[in-house]
């Protein structure tokens, strides 16, 4: 019996199937018949760290400075963030708009990484 029913089981390390089930101290994959012990499957190590990249494929980090590469209309306003606008000290977040920043003259907003390049 599982100790915590809210914790999802890890995917199969061989075929990545999500239909894994527990059998005593082991996990079993019904699709490829692979068996492995619970101790061999650390849940935290299985999490993949997300990497944010700009429009040109450069890796972004918190605190980077970036430049806008496309005129961006601001929702609910007639203002536009122009091409070439520099944005300093970005913060990377999860979601569709994955950059949180402050732009001089516009204030705090979120941008998509596909519309910026690393400065």
TrEMBL record:
Residues 53-119 form the Protein YjdM C-terminal domain. The keyword Coiled coil does not apply. One of its GO terms (molecular function) is hydrolase activity. Keywords: Hydrolase. The keyword Transcription does not apply. Residues 9-37 form the Protein YjdM N-terminal domain. It holds the Pfam family Zn_Ribbon_YjdM. PANTHER family: PROTEIN YJDM, PROTEIN YJDM-RELATED. Belongs to the YjdM family. This is Phosphonoacetate hydrolase. It comes from Sphaerotilus microaerophilus.
């Amino acid at each position: 019996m599982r100790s915590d029913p809210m914790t999802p089981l890890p995917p199969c390390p061989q075929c990545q199937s999500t239909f894994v089930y527990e059998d005593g101290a082991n996990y079993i994959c019904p699709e490829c018949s692979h068996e492995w012990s619970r101790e061999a499957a650390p849940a935290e190590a299985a999490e993949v760290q997300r990497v944010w990249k700009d429009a040109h494929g450069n890796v972004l980090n918190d605190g980077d400075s970036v430049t806008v590469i496309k005129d961006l209309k601001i929702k609910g306003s007639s203002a536009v963030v122009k091409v070439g606008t520099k944005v300093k000290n970005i913060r990377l977040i999860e979601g569709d708009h994955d950059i949180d920043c402050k732009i001089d003259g516009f204030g705090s907003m979120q941008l998509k990484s596909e519309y910026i390049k690393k400065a």
